[in-house]
TrEMBL record:
Residues 1-34 are annotated as: Disordered. NCBIfam families: TRAP_fused. The chain crosses the membrane at residues 55-74, 80-101, 113-131, 137-160, 167-184, 224-245, 380-397, 403-420, 441-459, 479-501, 508-525, 537-565, 577-597, 609-630, 635-652, 658-676. It comes from the Bacteria. Keywords: Membrane, Transmembrane, Transmembrane helix. InterPro entries: DctM (IPR010656), TRAP_DctM-Dct_fused (IPR011853). Residues 155-602 form the TRAP C4-dicarboxylate transport system permease DctM subunit domain. This is TRAP transporter 4TM/12TM fusion protein. Residues 1-27 have a biased composition (Basic and acidic residues).
Length: 691
């Protein structure tokens, strides 16, 4: 049989397997680990890898271990010079990507194509060029040599192709567009025009300076991020993922609409160690979505709960999908300040989803799970030690330990803690698995940060970020009547830009792109208007909206992954996810307009009052989204409740003075008005409630 026929047969087998999985999930059954892996391959580019055996499989296995050992060594004993550290890191990643990721989805998984061997060899040559000729390169004066231009050009192409395979097409399209913009600068319209970069200047800046591929994003990947991903891999080997699920069941399973609240709680916990909305959706959703469907939630709503919760996991400290470590460099803030600032918004995000699911469960009369479907609380408490490594790294960071040391100590503490019980123990086999899985997880991040470095480099050389930011502020100014309105409109335009730029990109690349392109618009407000938006608040604003792109139609990767489990409709699932995560579309405006919510220059009393009014506002907005509060409410009360919620969440005393009395009145009316025209109840419902 020819290779083309074999590929066609493999593609048909894959399609049949996907159909079988979807039929299984439509019946409310849970997925096995193998079926979860297949579903992730379908929706998550980072999971679409080959399954290699024989000599090639062993070779890749050894390279993965070597990659992790290299990072542990440099974390323990100090990094090499910036260029050497980053190119060795990139070299490992590119070689492994071309060996593990086929050129196209559905490509042969059991062997490596001849051209992938060639690309892997080129990756070694290109990334090995810096360590071998380091002294020559740093001492030369002027432009690059012809050989260096060839090396640099190949490096750019390898990074683009590696990113396409390991991360997906969207980030490659953006990076390629920026390269074109850099070269054809003089031909760009209006304010976007610039002097342009020659081919020599472009290649040199992209690979022979720290302003391009080898810039800050890759620097963070080659130090902080890799070690924390490795820490997460060791945690997974203790069974902490399953423990999070059991803990969520024990805490939330009995409550009204239990499975939905289990999904929220479990996804928040898994988000602390997961770097992907899609991966979080598939792993936790494989058992929470079937539970929700069996209890009575509609398939589109069940998928939306998991997608919204899993996406929120990327906003959850301490790791925040690895973006927290990038924010250290981009925002110039300490890790502790970033984690502290992210805490209250993340908790409000999950509280908002919890409120909406609670009202939905009350509306359709869903109860919690029966006791026989819940894990024994004593058994859950026996494994509480698995949370110690996470507590330990937070404490170490608070004590001022470096991020690299904290991650290494976290790994050591995880291994030590795992020894408490036989079923959680990390033996030699699990130790090796953790090394290889940590390196695998880092491949997508390395490719994404290298590719995002191209974008950052072009923006740095052309000043595009500032130009784009000024354009948004000017457009907002022409549509505004006053400074406050211009501020709000600029934030709206920045929100839209961040959502568009964030579609289809992993968390790390997502934040790099939005903070490079969309962020300058907010910072420009500080220069052009009489406002003072804190830098950290601006970074958090674009970060939030870049993340919610994972549930915002039409792309909505997390929602699409959830429908693969629920059997629902992607657009409706995405729409429901947006409704559930409505807080994520409001909270960022809160911390720009009132930075105290990020615990910036504030007191405990100020923060407490802000949280109280925000919770009241989310209750009102949640009720308006579902159409149910303490009882069913009609359309006109839903509108009033929504506006009341906006008043309560909008920062400032005047809005609270309006919102609080109306909120209290709405609550009182639902208890006082009985009989008569109660909030949307028909006669049968009234009779039932009175009886």
């Amino acid at each position: 049989m020819s290779d083309s026929k074999k590929q066609q047969e493999e593609q048909k087998d894959l399609e049949r397997e996907n159909e079988r999985i979807e039929e299984k999930m439509a019946g409310g059954e849970e997925l096995s680990q193998e079926e979860q892996a297949k579903l992730m391959e379908k929706y998550d580019a980072e999971s679409n890898t080959r399954d290699l055996t024989g000599i090639i499989g062993k070779t890749v296995f050894i390279i993965l271990i070597a990659f992790s050992l290299f990072q542990i060594y440099t974390g323990m004993f100090g990094q090499y010079t910036a260029y050497v550290q980053r190119t060795v890191h990139l070299g490992f990643a590119l070689v492994l990507i071309f060996m593990l990721f086929p050129a196209r989805r559905g490509g042969p998984k059991g062997k490596v194509a001849w051209y992938d061997y060639l690309l892997a060899i080129l990756s070694i040559i290109v990334c090995g060029y810096w360590p071998v000729y380091y002294d020559t390169i740093v001492q030369q004066i002027g432009g690059s040599t012809d050989a260096q231009l060839v090396i640099g050009s190949i490096a750019i192409l390898l990074v683009l192709e590696g990113s396409r395979r390991a991360v997906g097409l969207p980030i490659v399209i953006v990076a390629a567009a920026f390269l074109i913009y850099a070269y054809f600068g003089p031909y760009m319209p209006g304010a976007l025009a610039h002097r342009g970069l020659s081919l020599n200047q472009l290649v040199t800046s992209m690979f022979f300076t720290t302003e391009g591929i080898l810039g800050t994003p890759l620097a963070v990947s080659s130090t902080y991020i890799f070690l924390f991903l490795l820490f997460g891999a060791f945690l997974v080997q203790t069974g902490v993922g399953s423990y999070f699920n059991d803990l969520a069941l024990a805490i939330a399973g009995k409550r009204t609409g239990g499975p939905a609240k289990v999904a929220i709680f479990s996804s928040a916990l898994n988000g602390t160690i997961s770097g992907s909305s899609v991966a979080n959706t598939v792993t936790t959703g494989s058992y929470t979505i079937p539970m929700m469907k069996r209890l009575g939630y509609h398939k589109n709503f069940a998928g939306a709960v998991e997608a919204a919760s899993s996406t929120g996991g990327q906003l959850m400290p301490p790791i925040m999908g690895a973006a927290a470590f990038l924010m250290i460099e981009f925002a110039g803030e300490s890790y502790w300040d970033i984690a502290k600032a992210a805490t209250i918004p993340a908790l409000l995000y999950f509280t908002g989803i919890w409120i909406v699911t609670h009202f939905e469960a009350k509306r359709i009369g869903l109860l919690g799970l029966p006791a026989d479907q819940l894990p024994p609380k004593k058994e859950v408490l026996k494994k509480i030690h698995l949370l110690l490594p996470i507590v330990a790294i937070v404490w170490l960071l608070f004590q001022g330990f470096s991020i690299e040391r904290t991650a290494l100590y976290g790994i050591a503490i995880t291994i030590l803690v795992s020894l408490f019980r036989k079923d959680t123990r990390i033996n030699f086999s699990r130790f090796i698995i953790a090394l290889t899985s940590g390196a695998r997880t880092a491949l997508g991040v390395a490719a994404a940060t290298a590719c995002a470095g191209i974008i950052v480099g072009v923006v740095t050389r052309t000043g595009l970020g500032l130009k784009f930011g000024n354009m948004l502020v000017d457009i907002a100014g022409t549509l505004s009547f006053n400074v406050e309105m211009q501020l709000i409109l600029t934030l709206v335009f920045t929100m839209i830009a961040s959502i568009i730029l964030g579609m289809g990109s992993p968390t790390t690349a997502n934040y790099i792109i939005t903070s490079t392109i969309a962020l300058p618009a907010i910072l420009a407000l500080n220069d052009q208007l009489d406002v003072a938006v804190p830098v950290l608040a601006a970074h958090m604003f674009v970060f939030y909206f870049g993340i919610v792109a994972d549930i915002t139609p039409p792309v909505a990767l997390a929602a699409f992954a959830a429908t693969g489990i629920s059997g629902g409709e992607p657009m409706r699932t995405g729409g429901n996810a947006v409704k559930l995560a409505i807080a994520a579309f409001i909270i960022p405006y809160m911390f720009v307009l009132q930075p105290q919510i990020l615990m910036i220059d504030t007191t405990v009393w100020e923060v407490s009052f802000i949280i109280l009014t925000a919770l009241m506002g989310m209750n009102a907005i949640g009720a308006s989204m579902v159409g149910y509060w303490y009882r069913k409410i009609p359309w006109y009360v839903r509108i009033i409740a929504f506006l009341t919620g906006i008043f309560l969440m909008y920062p400032g005393t005047p809005s609270d003075v309006i919102g609080i009395p109306i909120f209290v009145l709405l609550i009182v009316l639902q208890f006082v008005i009985k009989g008569g025209p109660t909030f949307g109840k028909n006669k049968k419902e009234q009779a039932a409630s009175q009886s």
